[in-house]
Amino acid sequence: SGKYVLFLNPDTYVQKDTLKTIYKFMENNSTVGVCCPRLDLPDGTLTSASHRGFPTPWNSFTYFSGLQKLFPRSKLFSGYTKGWLLDSNKPHEVDAISGGFFFVRRAAAEQVGWWDEDYFLYGEDIDFCYRLKEKGWKVMFLPKVSVLHYHGISSGIKKHSSNLSLASEKTRLRALKASTEAMKIFYKKHYQKKYPYLLNVGVLFGVDILNFLRKRKGLI
To answer: What is the pLDDT of residues 126-150, one digit of tens each?
Structure first.
């Protein structure tokens, strides 16, 4: 029945006054549907999932082809993580944030229907943000507020935390499969009707290749 709902992963550490700061921000910005602080890995690196662009065919291509690494602050090539905004220390709008810390306005969430249960793991936060923005709500990133995030420790498939994870081999394989299944669900739901048939075939085939490579490597 509260005005706001916080979805918080168990692999996070929230510092003092974090919730108070975010609550005040939401109270002062009525057009914001959801917001997220910096989610930092133990080494201080930003978890890229907390500062995202939508995975359009172009954004996905530039990210997985490595073009974004070559031009990390380019609007043309870093759309997957909105890299040109990463140096800003002011609250700013992004396309999507991480479900690891998801501070959402209840009225906005009820308007879009909360989480899509077609997603097993991964992708549900991007889908939620997409639907919020369709209804005119803003998705905001707050760079001056930080939360420690042991990203991926539950699934065991992230490079930076796999050595800390107690996930079984079965769990890791299921998580790897879910990571690419989520891509297909999102694409078919939101993009398939917007793009030509041949591009759709190419994108979905590319996801299958990515799934194969991830299974061989065992990590994301």
So the answer is: 999 999 999 999 999 999 999 999 8
Q: Which helix (H) or strand (E) holds 129?
A: helix 124-134
Q: Phi, psi at residue 47, to the nearest 5°?
A: -70, 115
Between the alpha carbon of residue 6 and those of residues 90, 97, 133, the distances in Å are 22, 13, 19
**Residue 66 forms part of a structural domain:** no
The Cα 116–Cα 135 span in angstroms is 16
Contact present, 125 and 96 (Cβ < 8 Å)? yes
Biggest distance spanned by C-alpha atoms of the chain: 51
Per DSSP bridges, beta strands 32-40 and 138-149 are parallel
- Give this prediction's pTM: 0.94
Does any domain span residue 163?
Answer: no
For residue 95, is it within any domain?
A: yes
Per the structure, the count of domains in the chain is: 2
Q: Which residues pair with 96 in a beta bridge?
A: 52
Q: What residues does 13 pair with on adjacent strands?
A: 148
